[in-house]
Amino acid sequence: MRIYRFRVLIDDPSEAFRDIEISSEQSFLDLHKAIKDAFGFIGQEMAAFYVSDENWDKGAEIPLADLGFAEEGSVPALMHEVLISDHMRSTNQRFVYAYDFLHMWMFMVELINASKPEPGVTYPRVVLSMKEAPSEHSKEDDLTAGIIDEEDPYSAGAEEHQYEEGEDGDEFGGEEHGEEHDEFGHGGGGDDEFH
Q: What pTM does this model have?
């Protein structure tokens, strides 16, 4: 059994990163949970790891759950089924980790060390934490940015009602105050007979 130390960098202006140690015999689900915990993410969003290369290109997918999008009928092995050691091909092994497919939090996961386990230590564990991580919900405002324009006369809350003098808010005109109307907007006057 080996202990892998991964540097996990979030793709965010904060440039926050965490060094996480994990056993070669633990699963990608364990690494998924460790990354979420290390960055303070508490949601239960979908996620996936991608085996990567030195250019951070996405290769084979290791999803959290089967979403039914498998190519050519082959379902990829899920995080709980895949051990970290199953995809360790290089001393510079890299993975891309995507969390929350709506907000698309992206993390670069790079192997920086391999060693023997320390007696009495529980893995995975965070061994280095640099810079404050962004809030998991900080991207929610980005989803509406540019959609609702402050100058747009049709945006919510921008409605203006200008009435001519004497209209008293009657947009459709011609109806007297106090006149009863049926459900179709016709004057009723109390006559229930169909005409």
A: 0.69
